[in-house]
Design brief:
By secondary structure, the protein is α/β, with parallel strands linked by helices. Helix content is 38%, strand content 14%. Strand 4, helix 5 and strand 5 form a beta-alpha-beta unit. The structure holds pyridoxal-5'-phosphate.
Length: 372
């Protein structure tokens, strides 16, 4: 039996950057500069630069970047924020944490929010639209920003799966009023623990969030308002600074792997992930569709190939969101996708041989069981 292939493998990556990462970590520890020190400052500058924005504020997680950013824009109880029904729950829960109500919108077959369905969800209470660049592909931002301008709404990018993805020559995180990124270890740019960052060109917003993450402090022991502890810690910033230098290379390798998958899956009864023109997909996940999803997943598992489902239960059908009052059938595309999607192994270091093994196994599955 061959070695197992997992959906992500962070150990291979660490081996490649071990010396540099260990050195960066040792420096933070020997300087005892653990909280909001130089490493965090420097990483914020590097990341802002990378995204092509003026400011970046490191925080404790992606969901925190979304929540604090929206709070800093004044979004709260009584407000509504429109977002994607097809996402990880954190997109919506960040809205709920501000006190506002998430208003969900169905997606297109490219997995992202369908801009043509947004306008009819806008009410007097709507304050913002939050597209999610799901799986690493930018949402259709021109259409979304046009609607936001027409109705005088903020645009908030959930870029937690899209570090380095480009839409019409601009990086995600630089397209809306602010962008939010997660550094959860499995993300394209991942820390060795939790972390997140907010990107923006709005100086005031950056200033407020930098206080919000740190007890509302203007300077030490001067608290302008009551706020949270949601800081990006220096050890994580040091790791991220090393890793940021490799992000484009890693994203390119993911794209190469996606191409190999596309070729290997040609002619099989599965749908490869659609790619929109004018944007680069950074393949945080490589998600195929098939009506035989569950059977295929167990077949692959028997062959030592692990897969994932992102996500098996749509947000509007989650127990946690009973109170929103949505029911089955409200978002037909999202619900259909939830039954058909399968995330194949995807990380930069995946080899052509491994990918061939995956696609050959999928071919083998359909030869054995047919397409039903
Ligand atoms: C990972 C993720 C988040 C939340 O990030 P955390 O760092 O885990 O808080 C939010 N939205 C999307 C789409 C994500 O994938």
């Amino acid at each position: 039996m061959q070695a197992k292939i997992n959906v992500v493998d962070l150990k291979i990556q660490y081996k490649q950057i071990k010396n540099e990462v260990n050195k960066a970590l040792r420096e933070v520890i020997s300087n005892a500069d653990f909280i909001l020190g130089n490493e965090v400052n420097d990483f914020e500058k590097d990341f802002a630069n990378y995204c092509g924005v003026k400011f970046a504020v490191g925080v404790g997680s992606g969901v925190s970047a979304l929540e604090l950013g929206m709070r800093a824009l004044g979004i709260g109880p009584g407000d509504e924020v429109i977002t994607a029904a097809n996402s990880f729950i954190a997109s919506s829960s960040a809205i709920s944490f501000t006190g506002a109500r998430p208003i969900l919108v169905d997606c297109r077959e490219d997995f992202n929010i369908d801009p043509s369905l947004i306008e009819k969800k806008i009410t007097k209470k709507t304050k913002a639209i939050m597209p999610v660049h799901l799986f690493g592909q930018p949402a259709l931002m021109d259409d979304i920003i046009k609607i936001a301008r027409k109705f005088n709404l903020y645009t908030v990018e959930d870029a937690c799966q899209a570090h380095g993805a480009v839409y019409k020559k601009k990086k995600t995180g630089s397209l809306g009023d602010f962008g939010a990124f997660s550094f959860y270890p499995g993300k394209n740019l991942g820390a060795y623990g939790d972390g997140g960052i907010l990107t923006t060109n709005n100086k005031r917003l950056a200033k407020i969030v930098s206080m919000m993450r740190n007890y509302g402090q203007k300077k030490k022991y001067h608290h302008k308002f009551l706020a949270w502890n949601s800081r990006l810690d220096s050890l994580q910033a040091a790791v991220l600074r090393v890793k940021l230098k490799f992000l484009d290379e890693w994203n390119m390798k993911r794209a190469r792997n996606a191409k190999l998958y596309n070729q290997g899956l040609k002619g099989l009864p599965v749908t490869a992930p659609p790619v929109n023109p004018d944007s680069t997909h950074i393949y945080h996940l490589y998600v195929i569709r098939t009506k035989s999803r569950d059977k295929l997943a167990s077949f692959l598992k028997e062959k030592g190939i692990n897969t994932g489902i992102h996500y098996p239960i749509p947000i509007h059908l989650q127990e946690a969101y009973r109170n929103l009052g949505y029911t089955k059938g409200d978002f037909p595309i999202t619900e259909m996708l939830a039954k058909e999607i399968l995330s194949l192994p995807m990380y930069p270091e995946l080899t052509g041989k491994q990918i061939k093994l995956v696609t050959d196994s999928i071919k083998n599955f359909f030869q054995t069981y047919g397409n039903n």
